[in-house]
Design a protein that fits this description.
54% of the residues lie in helices and 12% in strands. It is built from 17 helices and 13 strands. 41% of the residues are buried.
Length: 441
C-alpha cells in the first residue's frame, strides 16, 4: 500500500465499496443458486469474501474505519456460530495487524519529530513493523542505552483521515447492523468522535502510560512498559514480550484461558483505583501474557480519567440489584440518570431485565462464553421477550459512556476467552461502593 489515504472522496469511495461489494456478491450468489449450486455453499463463499473485503478496506484505511472494525471485532462472540467463522477470523485480525505503511513514510515521521539524525537515538531500528494498528504502527528497535524498545509511529495524515471517516462511516454501519443484531453502533461512533483529538496527541498517551507504569511498578500480576521518549507523533517505550490474548483466544488451553481472563478482569477494575485512569481500549491486541505469567498492557491512547476511582454508585447499584431490591434499584438508577424522571418503569420488570448482568456475580466463579453472550443478546433484543421494551426506556448518561463501552467490550473479550473467573472477589476488592451480599448455603 501507499501512504494512508487522506482525501475524503477517496476514503468515501473505499468505505462505500463494502456495502456495494456485498450487494454485488449477493446478486452473484443468487445466480449461482439458480444455477444449481447448494445454498449453504454459496452463502459460505459470500461470507468469506465479504469478510476478506472488510479487513482489506478497514485495514488499509486505518484511522477511524479501522478503529470501528476493532470495536466490532470484540463483539463477534455474540454472532451465531453459523455466521461467526469468516467474520471472526477477519475482524479478529484487525485486533493485532493491518497492512503496513511504506518505510519512507516511517523515516519521514521520525525525521520530523526527532530530527534528521534520528538514527543516533537507536543502536538498531527494524524497518519492518512488528504490529500495525488504527492510527499508528509499532517497530522494534534497540535504544541508545541498549534497551529493547517499541517505537509507535503515527500514520501521516491520520488526523485528516479520522475526520473523513467519522463523516463517512455510516455507510459501513448499515452493513454491520446486519452482522450483529442488537448492537447500538451510534454510541460507539460518538465515543470515537469524542476521543479522537486526544488519541492523535501521543504526548497525552505517553503521560497516561507513565501513570499506569508507576502505579503498577513491580506488581506481581500486571506489567506496563516504561515510557522512554515521546513526541506528538512518536512514542518510544520498553519492549514487552508475551503471548497476545488473541492467540490465547484462538488456541489457548483452558488453564491459559482462565488465567488470562482473571487477570484481564482484575486489571479493568484495578486501573481506576490504583492509577486514577480506566484503560478504555479493551480489545485483545492491547493485552498479552508475559513469560512470567503476568498480564502485560500496552496502548494507552484511549483512557478515561477517574481521579477518585470508579463512581461508587456503580458498586452500590450492583449490591442493591443482587439483594433483590427492585424499588431501591429503580430509585438509584433515576438518581444517577440511567432512568429519566419522566419515564415510568415497573421495578420488578426492570430487575428481571437486568438479571443477566447480575448473574455472573451470584456465584463465586463464573464462566463467560460465546453461548452465554448470545443468550444475553437474545434476552435484551428479542421483541418476543416480555421485558423487551424496558431497554428502550433506559438512558446512558454521558459521563458513563466510556465506562459502559469498556465493560461491554470487556465482557465480549471474556466471552471470546471462555475463561472462568472469580468475579465477586474482583468486584468486592476493587469497585467502590460494592458490598455484595453473601452467597446462600
Amino acid at each position: 500500500m501507499t501512504d494512508l489515504p487522506r482525501r475524503a472522496v477517496v476514503r468515501s469511495v473505499k468505505l462505500a465499496s463494502v456495502p456495494l461489494g456485498f450487494a454485488g456478491r449477493t446478486a452473484l450468489g443468487i445466480g449461482k443458486r439458480l444455477g444449481g449450486r447448494p445454498a449453504e455453499v454459496v452463502t459460505a463463499e459470500l461470507q468469506a469474501r465479504t469478510a476478506q473485503q472488510l479487513f482489506q478496506v478497514l485495514g488499509e484505511l486505518k484511522g477511524g474505519a479501522m478503529k470501528f472494525g476493532q470495536a466490532l471485532s470484540i463483539f463477534e462472540a455474540a454472532l451465531p456460530e453459523d455466521l461467526a467463522g469468516p467474520y471472526r477470523a477477519m475482524l479478529t485480525k484487525l485486533q493485532d495487524s493491518a497492512p503496513p505503511m511504506p518505510t519512507a513514510s516511517v523515516h519521514r515521521v521520525l525525521a520530523e519529530d526527532f530530527g534528521t539524525a534520528w538514527r543516533d537515538r537507536f543502536r538498531h531500528f527494524d524497518d519492518a513493523p512488528a504490529a500495525s494498528a488504527s492510527i499508528g504502527q509499532v517497530h522494534r528497535a534497540v535504544w541508545s542505552d541498549g534497551r529493547d524498545v517499541a517505537v509507535k509511529i503515527q500514520y501521516p495524515g491520520a488526523a485528516t483521515a479520522l475526520m473523513s471517516d467519522l463523516r463517512q462511516i455510516s455507510r459501513v454501519t448499515r452493513v454491520a447492523a446486519g452482522w450483529i443484531p442488537g448492537i447500538e453502533l451510534g454510541p460507539i461512533l460518538d465515543e470515537l468522535r469524542d476521543r479522537m483529538a486526544e488519541e492523535l496527541d501521543y504526548r497525552l498517551e505517553a503521560d497516561a502510560q507513565a501513570t499506569f507504569a508507576e502505579a503498577f511498578a513491580g506488581d506481581p500480576q500486571f506489567v506496563v512498559p516504561d515510557v522512554v521518549d515521546g513526541t506528538r507523533s512518536v512514542i518510544v517505550s520498553e519492549w514487552l514480550d508475551g503471548t497476545p490474548l488473541s492467540q490465547i483466544i484462538a488456541r489457548g488451553t483452558q488453564a491459559e484461558r482462565d488465567h488470562a481472563a482473571q487477570l484481564y478482569l482484575e486489571f479493568l477494575f484495578a486501573g481506576p483505583s490504583r492509577a486514577g485512569l480506566l484503560h478504555a481500549d479493551p480489545h485483545p491486541g492491547n493485552f498479552r501474557i508475559t513469560p512470567d505469567g503476568r498480564l502485560g498492557v500496552i496502548d494507552f491512547g484511549a483512557v478515561k480519567r477517574l481521579p477518585d476511582g470508579m463512581p461508587p454508585e456503580i458498586g452500590q447499584l450492583l449490591t442493591i440489584g443482587l439483594q433483590g431490591g427492585s424499588e431501591a434499584l429503580l430509585e438509584g438508577l433515576r438518581d444517577t440518570g440511567f432512568v429519566r424522571p419522566s419515564i415510568e418503569l415497573d421495578p420488578d420488570r426492570l430487575l428481571e431485565f437486568l438479571e443477566p448482568f447480575l448473574a455472573p456475580l451470584r456465584t463465586d466463579t463464573f464462566t463467560f462464553s460465546r453461548a452465554w453472550l448470545r443468550s444475553v443478546f437474545t434476552h435484551i433484543n428479542d421483541p418476543r421477550q416480555p421485558n423487551f421494551a424496558i431497554g428502550y426506556k433506559l438512558n446512558l448518561p454521558p459521563e458513563y459512556l466510556l465506562i459502559h463501552r469498556v465493560w461491554g467490550g470487556g465482557i465480549g473479550v471474556l466471552s471470546q476467552l471462555g475463561g472462568t473467573v472469580r468475579g465477586r472477589e474482583a468486584v468486592n476488592a476493587h469497585l467502590p461502593g460494592a458490598h455484595l451480599p453473601p452467597l446462600g448455603p
